[in-house]
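Page 47, continued from p. 46.
Same chain as before, 109 aa.
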Amino acid sequence: MKTFTISAALALLTSLVSAAPAITQYEARQFQAQITFIGAADGVFTQSVPTDGSLFTITNPLSVSKISSQGGATCGFSGIDGSLTVLVGAQIVDVGPPQTQISGSCRAF
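Result:
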Protein backbone atom coordinates (compact mmCIF):
# COMPACT_ATOMS: atom_id res chain seq x y z
CA MET A 1 0.00 0.00 0.00
CA LYS A 2 2.85 2.35 0.83
CA THR A 3 4.45 1.74 -2.57
CA PHE A 4 1.15 2.41 -4.32
CA THR A 5 0.69 5.72 -2.44
CA ILE A 6 4.19 6.92 -3.31
CA SER A 7 3.77 5.88 -6.96
CA ALA A 8 0.41 7.64 -7.17
CA ALA A 9 1.84 10.81 -5.61
CA LEU A 10 4.77 10.84 -8.06
CA ALA A 11 2.43 10.27 -11.00
CA LEU A 12 0.22 13.15 -9.87
CA LEU A 13 3.20 15.47 -9.40
CA THR A 14 4.57 14.56 -12.83
CA SER A 15 1.24 15.28 -14.51
CA LEU A 16 0.94 18.67 -12.78
CA VAL A 17 4.44 19.72 -13.83
CA SER A 18 3.92 18.66 -17.43
CA ALA A 19 0.54 20.43 -17.56
CA ALA A 20 2.00 23.76 -16.40
CA PRO A 21 2.48 26.24 -19.25
CA ALA A 22 6.10 26.63 -20.25
CA ILE A 23 7.57 30.10 -20.55
CA THR A 24 9.50 30.27 -23.77
CA GLN A 25 12.66 32.30 -24.16
CA TYR A 26 10.73 34.71 -26.41
CA GLU A 27 8.03 35.33 -23.79
CA ALA A 28 10.68 36.07 -21.15
CA ARG A 29 12.03 38.91 -23.34
CA GLN A 30 8.71 40.76 -23.58
CA PHE A 31 8.61 44.32 -22.23
CA GLN A 32 7.23 47.73 -23.11
CA ALA A 33 9.71 49.73 -25.24
CA GLN A 34 9.98 53.44 -24.53
CA ILE A 35 9.88 55.36 -27.81
CA THR A 36 10.37 59.13 -27.94
CA PHE A 37 9.07 61.11 -30.91
CA ILE A 38 10.81 64.46 -31.41
CA GLY A 39 9.40 67.31 -33.50
CA ALA A 40 10.23 70.91 -34.24
CA ALA A 41 10.14 73.68 -31.61
CA ASP A 42 10.85 71.27 -28.73
CA GLY A 43 7.73 69.21 -29.40
CA VAL A 44 8.24 65.77 -27.82
CA PHE A 45 6.10 62.83 -26.72
CA THR A 46 6.96 59.37 -25.43
CA GLN A 47 4.92 56.23 -25.93
CA SER A 48 5.29 52.83 -24.27
CA VAL A 49 4.79 50.18 -26.94
CA PRO A 50 4.56 46.37 -26.95
CA THR A 51 7.55 44.38 -28.21
CA ASP A 52 5.63 41.34 -29.42
CA GLY A 53 5.57 42.35 -33.08
CA SER A 54 1.96 43.56 -33.02
CA LEU A 55 0.94 46.68 -34.91
CA PHE A 56 0.06 49.65 -32.69
CA THR A 57 -1.49 53.02 -33.50
CA ILE A 58 0.11 56.40 -32.82
CA THR A 59 -2.51 59.12 -32.34
CA ASN A 60 -0.39 62.18 -31.52
CA PRO A 61 -0.52 64.64 -34.48
CA LEU A 62 2.99 66.07 -33.86
CA SER A 63 5.07 66.32 -37.04
CA VAL A 64 8.01 64.12 -36.08
CA SER A 65 11.57 64.75 -37.29
CA LYS A 66 13.41 62.19 -35.10
CA ILE A 67 12.50 58.95 -33.29
CA SER A 68 14.49 57.65 -30.34
CA SER A 69 14.53 54.24 -28.64
CA GLN A 70 16.17 53.20 -25.37
CA GLY A 71 17.00 49.82 -26.90
CA GLY A 72 16.18 46.15 -26.54
CA ALA A 73 13.99 45.97 -29.64
CA THR A 74 13.86 46.53 -33.37
CA CYS A 75 11.05 48.90 -34.33
CA GLY A 76 9.51 50.19 -37.54
CA PHE A 77 7.25 53.25 -37.84
CA SER A 78 4.98 54.47 -40.66
CA GLY A 79 4.31 58.14 -41.32
CA ILE A 80 1.13 59.74 -42.60
CA ASP A 81 2.88 60.71 -45.86
CA GLY A 82 4.47 57.30 -46.43
CA SER A 83 7.74 57.48 -44.51
CA LEU A 84 9.16 54.27 -43.04
CA THR A 85 11.62 54.65 -40.16
CA VAL A 86 13.48 51.69 -38.63
CA LEU A 87 15.35 51.65 -35.31
CA VAL A 88 17.53 48.77 -34.16
CA GLY A 89 18.37 48.93 -30.47
CA ALA A 90 19.21 52.18 -28.71
CA GLN A 91 19.47 54.95 -31.28
CA ILE A 92 18.03 58.18 -32.62
CA VAL A 93 16.95 58.16 -36.27
CA ASP A 94 15.86 61.00 -38.56
CA VAL A 95 12.38 60.86 -40.11
CA GLY A 96 12.47 62.14 -43.66
CA PRO A 97 10.65 64.21 -44.46
CA PRO A 98 9.24 65.15 -41.02
CA GLN A 99 5.65 63.97 -40.64
CA THR A 100 3.04 62.67 -38.22
CA GLN A 101 3.62 59.01 -37.35
CA ILE A 102 0.52 56.82 -37.54
CA SER A 103 1.60 53.28 -36.65
CA GLY A 104 4.49 51.11 -35.58
CA SER A 105 5.62 47.66 -34.60
CA CYS A 106 8.45 46.49 -32.30
CA ARG A 107 10.01 43.10 -31.66
CA ALA A 108 12.26 42.38 -28.65
CA PHE A 109 15.74 41.08 -29.40
